[in-house]
Design a protein that fits this description.
The complex is a heterotrimer of chains A (242), B (312) and C (291). Chain B has 312 residues and is mainly α. Chain B has 13 helices and two strands; from the N terminus they run H-H-H-H-H-E-H-H-H-H-E-H-H-H-H. Chain B has a domain of 217 residues. Classes of the chains: A alpha/beta (242), B mainly alpha (312), C mainly alpha (291).
């Protein structure tokens, strides 16, 4: 299996706070890899380092064979890694169609082609009816889907999802799981940060567990569920791991 | 579409019916609308709120003027040189400033500072006659962008505006324009979607600068006198901003509506036969504008163009 | 070769004016630090106070310093009025709206003054306008000394209010974290209004004390606001102590550079400094670098 993303001993500190310490893991082509950990474990910071928002203090990020450590985020996106933001960042004054089309323009240079691609993605995400609504008029749920649509429109080979299941009702979680599975089936590898353990346990082929910026465990979901280190990290969070 | 044609038709015949005062007022308004659209390119579409556009205006005015006075180059060509020069200066400025990730009010202040530095330099630069300025004595009409009658200036200004409107509309429908909007709305999200924000912010400023310079050249040819105190002060900047923000930033029509309202009305008031330049009227009208500006910005933040539009 | 005594004289003059600049800048930076609003009309508040002081002197022979009894409360109230009518409504708007609205205020005030007083420069002559103390090789103009002394006293008073009173604590809390401040029961709107009023009053105080040795016209506001920008950024936007240091520095730079180069070139240099600070150290001398 080809390695798509190779995170090598990445460390990042902000002032006195060590957000990431020697974090290493890989994502292979065709995989869905989950990242879990208590609040403040450094998960979003990890995404930010991988996608170039921050340059790490130490370590390397290699994506599709190219060293993208500290590269500009738009460059990482062009190489094929697209991410969503934990708190959705819609283009408030732009329509849903315009927003997703901007993602599509990443690979498709002409407006007509990009528009077609955008509509295709909107269809997949169930947002076609809202195509002419400005971003600011969407509900929180719709914004999440818009985030994903925009990222998908860039035609990534790796999709980084940041807590897309947060705040969803049980039936919506099932829909989201099916959606992500469908995306992966279409050939896009997925790196997914999730708090909703049901979603991440059922989706991921492998899981990386972060706590206090360090990787405390890695493995298959069924292995980790019984791992005392993982259970210990979550004891204060009142989660059930079953 | 038919409305646009009708307005254009009206605009084309206006000089026939208008007296000299009204004609001058409309020329001023067309000129103001043009430069408002130029500023709007960077500020309205790309969200780069520059306070230093007088710098580019001044470069345009001085470039075409100095090239004519020293080399006899017709300002028709000189204004393109001015635009190129302003574009280069704007691009270099942007490349430098954006590298340091300067945003919002800090960006605005840097651009303001740049314009102030330029004025200071101009006031002390003998080559361009410093604070005394340059008086243009034109010789060949129309070869040297000079006309003996006022009507041709009107048509030039109208043509410039129409071109600028078309440029804005084309931008709105283009890939470049969409990237400008993305940069304006959310730079981080734009970057994450593959948009090179550094590059497009720079392009926005460079393009806007070049176009603003044309307005400076027109000013020079219309008023036939330029100096740091006329083209490198805050006045042109204010004109651009007022028209754009009141009319509606980020649209092709907003800056036109806003500028015609402000500049046209102001100029007309200044020249009304029965109120013949009454000081109080002129000053009072500026106070009214100021109040109008404040009211529009508070209650209609999208500008006058949003009147009659459905709110989402 | 310019003699040392000339340099000392210029330096002293620079420090005096710098103290006044500092006061103006502090009013500006306080408003920005607390409400996040850049008030382009701040310089015109100075101008307005200069005119009121001028009027009081010309019509009722009230000395500018005595006139403060009227000017200070008047402009504190004026600030509150402007806040309630205009500023309050744009606090949550984007920065571009702040700039445009306060520019609108600037235009309004400038033209209001022009309407009433005309465009000519006007001045007053008090008993002490031309007197000076001679101290060794330098002559100390009383009017400028007074302006500097009062300005510095006001800065100290403001600092005391900010750090020793509960109001000051509320102001600093609201500046630091408006949501948090609201959560602990601070009326953030009221704090904003008071901060804006204080800033306006500071501008007014500066305007009143410079009147004995300055000329006023409706158009002097521009100079003041531009200097306020430079000083506030130099010292660190939101930092009162920074604005003090920045003010004194700019006053010195302005006075000393006028010995060697033209005023307009000196102005250009000041703005080049502004640009350099904005690029390399936007948090200013006393600000905190943020990641």
């Amino acid at each position: 299996m080809a390695v798509l993303l190779d995170v090598q001993s990445v460390s990042k500190a902000f002032g006195g706070l060590q957000a990431l310490s020697s974090v290493s893991f890989t994502v292979g082509a065709g995989e869905i890899v989950g990242i879990i950990g208590p609040n403040g474990a450094g998960k979003t910071t990890l995404f930010n380092v991988v996608t170039g928002v921050y340059a790490p203090d130490r370590g390397r990020v290699v994506f599709r064979g190219e060293d993208v450590t500290g590269a500009a985020p738009h460059h990482v996106c062009k190489l094929g890694a697209a991410r969503t933001f934990q708190v959705s960042k819609p283009f408030a004054a732009l329509t849903v169609l315009q927003t997703v089309r901007i993602g599509a323009l990443n690979r498709i240079p002409d407006m007509a082609g990009a528009t077609a691609k955008a509509l295709e993605v909107l269809e997949l995400m169930g947002l076609v009816a809202k195509r002419d609504e400005p971003g600011r008029a969407l509900t929180v749920m719709e914004r999440k889907r818009l985030e994903m649509a925009r990222a998908l429109a860039t035609q990534p080979s790796l999709l980084l999802l940041d807590e897309v299941a947060a705040g969803l009702r049980p039936n919506e979680i099932q829909d989201m799981i099916a959606l992500v599975r469908g995306i992966a089936a279409g050939g896009v590898s997925v790196l997914i940060i999730e708090h909703v353990l049901e979603a991440v346990l059922r989706l991921s082929g492998r899981i990386v567990v972060l706590n206090h910026g360090e990787v405390i465990a890695q493995g298959r979901p069924d292995e980790l569920v019984n791992d005392p280190r993982v259970i210990d990290a979550y004891l204060g969070e009142a989660y059930s791991l079953a | 579409m038919t409305l646009a044609v009708a307005i254009l038709a009206l605009a084309l015949v206006l000089p026939v019916a208008a007296g000299p005062h009204l004609l001058t007022a409309t020329i001023v308004a067309l000129h103001a609308a043009f430069m408002a659209l130029a500023w709007n390119l960077a500020a309205g579409y790309a969200g780069q709120f520059s306070l230093g556009h007088s710098l580019f205006y001044g470069i345009g005015a001085y470039a075409s003027t100095v090239l004519y006075v020293r080399l006899g180059l017709t300002p028709w060509a000189g204004m393109f040189v001015g635009a190129l020069l302003a574009g280069v200066v704007g691009t270099l400025l942007a490349l430098g400033v954006y590298r340091y990730k300067v945003h919002g009010i800090f960006f605005a202040l840097v651009t303001l500072g740049a314009a102030e530095v330029a004025k200071g330099i101009a006031d002390n630069w003998a080559f361009i006659k410093g604070p005394v300025g340059i008086l243009l004595t034109m010789q060949h009409a129309p070869r040297d962008f000079f006309f003996l009658r006022r009507e041709p200036y009107y048509y030039v200004a109208l043509a410039m505006l129409v071109v600028m409107i078309l440029v804005s509309l084309a931008l709105e429908r283009s890939r470049l324009g969409q990237f400008f909007l993305a940069v304006r709305e959310d730079e981080q999200a734009a970057e994450a979607s593959g948009v090179d924000t550094y590059r497009y912010k720079t392009v926005a400023i460079g393009l806007s600068a070049a176009l603003t310079a044309f307005a400076g050249s027109f000013y020079a040819q219309f008023y036939l006198y330029i100096s740091p105190d006329t083209v490198l002060v805050f006045e042109p900047q204010l004109t651009m901003m007022l028209g754009t923000m009141v009319g509606g930033a980020g649209t092709a029509l907003g800056p036109v509506i806003g500028s015609i309202l402000f500049s046209g009305l102001g100029e007309a008031l200044r020249n009304l036969p029965f109120l013949e330049g009454t000081r109080q009227v002129v000053i009072g009208s500026k106070m009214v504008y100021a109040v109008l500006l404040i009211v529009v910005l508070i209650y209609l933040p999208g500008g006058l163009v949003t009147l009659g539009q459905k709110r989402a | 070769m310019i003699g040392l005594d000339v340099i000392l004289q210029a330096g002293l003059s620079g420090l005096f004016m710098g103290s006044v600049y500092a006061l103006i800048a502090i009013g500006f930076t306080l408003v920005f630090g607390v409400t996040n609003i850049v008030n382009f009309a701040h310089g015109n508040f100075v101008m307005a106070a200069m005119f009121v002081t001028y009027l009081l002197f010309k019509t009722a022979h009230v000395d500018p310093y005595l006139g403060l009894v009227v000017v200070l409360p008047l402009f504190f109230g004026f600030g509150a009025l402007v806040y309630a009518l205009v500023i309050r409504r744009i606090v949550d708007a984007p920065h571009s709206a702040h700039m445009m609205v306060t520019l609108g205020l600037l235009i309004f005030l400038e033209n209001l003054a022009n309407l009433f007083f005309g465009g000519d420069l006007r001045g007053i002559t008090t008993v002490y306008t031309t007197s000076s103390l001679v101290v060794g090789a330098v002559s100390v103009p009383i009017a400028r000394l007074g302006a500097a002394a009062v300005s510095l006293a006001a800065v100290v008073a403001l600092a005391l209010v900010l750090h020793r009173t509960s109001l000051g604590k509320a102001i600093r809390a609201a500046a630091n974290n408006p949501e948090g401040a609201a959560l602990v029961g601070i009326d953030v709107g009221r704090v904003y209004r008071i901060a804006f009023s204080l800033g306006t009053a500071a501008a007014a105080l500066a305007g009143a004390v410079v009147m004995p040795f300055s000329l006023v016209s409706p158009f002097v506001g521009g100079e003041f606001i531009l200097k306020a920008f430079v000083i506030a950024v130099l010292g660190g936007l939101g930092s009162v102590a920074g604005a003090l240091i920045g003010g004194l520095l700019i006053g010195l730079v302005e006075a000393l550079s006028s010995l060697y180069i033209s005023a307009s070139l000196g102005n250009a240099i000041v703005f080049a400094i502004l640009i350099a600070v904005l690029l390399y150290r936007p948090w200013g001398i006393l600000g905190q670098a943020r990641v």
